[in-house]
Write a structure and sequence with these properties.
The strands form 3 sheets. Strands 2-9-8-7-6-3-4-5 form an 8-stranded mixed beta sheet, sandwiched between helices. Strands 10-11-14-13 form a 4-stranded antiparallel beta sheet. Strands 1-12 form a two-stranded parallel sheet. It has 418 residues and is an alpha/beta fold. Helix 5 crosses helix 6. It folds into 2 domains: 152 residues, Aspartate Aminotransferase, domain 1; 245 residues, Aspartate Aminotransferase, domain 2. Helix content is 40%, strand content 15%. The chain is built from 15 helices and 14 strands.
């Protein structure tokens, strides 16, 4: 018989609060509003996963590398805590192409995608009372993970009228003696921005002045198609210690393969002396590993993928970004302050005063999903930018055009009568 007086003592409410601020959680909310009566295909302009579209299929080199690794029977067992040595060497060589100094395998930690690299980085830098500086808007997984780690978050603004650059002056006002790191996402998610050498150097010098390290999220590294080339933050490792995060998910269009890395870009050895390196290894000792056979395939993937594959991806993204930017300008209630130059996203300002029966960005996205079967992300809930939207253009051009037509029709149906 059940004891009604018994007080059960299990459950972890921290997970509920952490997941509530995730993009996945917000997208699930919007997707739940889709109408089952709409015969049209759903247009997914919310989550940036182009792998479902034929025009973004990964390279045959990558596919063959996976097959070769499996057939070799060398990668069926457990991997070392920090990753398979050949994979770490290959990642170091890949990154060294863009750096003024040389990384070694000892600087590389293989992770289960870039998400685990974020988990490792935040756990390694955390201490009682610590805080971290995060961009607004930025990738919300940092906030979710910080909440789980009890790591206090302080936001600095990205400036839309300056191409979403960092408000560097505000950083010094935000930081105090408990600030441990600043996160820089370049190329930018959700903004589609790409930072110049001079701007990144300014951030590095500010971080050095404050005595904090830089976490450089470069998961969209080299996915640039504007006038500004990709510059890795690790170039400034001699100015300030950098934890560089990346993966093959975006450039090779294989997010489901879950192969990423965390790199200590620190030629002065500050991270080793401060104990961060020991903390990274300690976290990985009690965490999971990426699949060993994918690690085994990494040398072939990184060394043998031809430039024409990358060029094709860039050309496809640029065409889609241009199409998205031009289509947004045809919708009066939407304004895009800056054409995207990198990653797979663009931030769009929503003017709700032009619309009837639309209260804010979440209401807009929920009703758009219900009436037009188009999924986009409300940036108020997802990124702390009320009445902004994040749209991905990493899809088939035909699907993107169809989605933009539906958004325009939605606007016309809800436009406020004069």
């Amino acid at each position: 018989m059940e004891n009604s007086s018994k007080q059960w003592r299990f459950g972890n409410k921290r997970l509920n609060s952490a997941s509530a601020i995730s993009v996945r959680g917000v997208l699930d909310l919007v997707i739940g509003n889709l109408s089952t009566d709409d015969p049209r295909p759903t247009i997914p302009l919310g989550n940036g996963d182009p792998s479902q579209f034929a025009c973004f299929r990964t390279s045959t080199t990558a596919e063959e590398a996976i097959v070769d690794a499996v057939h070799s029977a060398k990668y069926n067992g457990y991997a070392p805590t920090v990753g398979v040595l050949s994979a770490r060497r290959a990642i170091a060589n890949y990154l060294n192409r863009d750096l003024p100094y040389k990384l070694s395998a000892d600087d590389i930690y293989v992770t289960s995608g870039c998400l685990q690299a974020i988990e490792v980085a935040l756990a390694a830098i955390n201490r009682p009372g610590a805080n971290i500086l995060l961009p607004r808007p930025g990738f919300t997984f940092y906030e979710s993970r910080a909440a789980y780690e009890h790591l206090q978050v302080r936001h600095f603004d990205l400036l839309p009228d300056r191409g979403w650059e960092v408000d560097v002056d505000a950083i010094e006002d935000l930081a105090d003696d408990n600030t441990v790191a600043i996160v820089i996402i370049n190329p930018g998610n959700p903004c589609g921005s790409v930072y110049s050498y001079d701007h990144l150097k300014m951030v590095a010098e500010t971080a050095r002045k404050l005595g904090i390290l830089v976490i450089a999220d470069e998961v969209y590294g080299h996915l640039t198609f504007g006038s500004t080339p990709f510059v890795p933050m690790g170039i400034f490792g001699s100015i300030v210690p950098v934890l560089s995060l990346g993966s093959i998910s975006k450039r090779w269009v294989v997010p489901g393969w879950r192969l990423g890395w965390l790199v200590t870009s620190d030629p002065n050895g500050i991270l080793q002396k401060s104990g961060i390196v020991e903390s990274i290894t300690g976290f990985l000792n009690i965490s999971t590993d990426p699949a060993t056979f994918i690690q085994g395939a990494i040398p072939q993937i990184l060394e043998n993928t031809k430039d024409d594959f990358f060029s094709k991806v860039i050309v496809t993204l640029k065409e889609a970004a241009d199409k998205c930017f031009d289509g947004i300008r045809e919708v009066p209630c939407l304004t895009c302050p800056k054409k995207p130059e990198g990653s797979m996203f663009v931030m769009v300002k929503l003017n709700v005063s032009l619309l009837e029966d639309i209260s804010d960005d979440l209401d807009f996205c929920m009703k758009l999903a219900k009436e037009e079967s188009v999924i986009i992300v409300p940036a108020g809930m997802a990124f702390g930018m009320k009445n902004w939207l994040r749209i991905t253009f990493a899809c088939e051009i035909s699907a993107l055009e169809d989605g933009l037509r539906r958004i325009k029709a939605f606007h016309q149906r809800h436009v406020r009568k004069q």
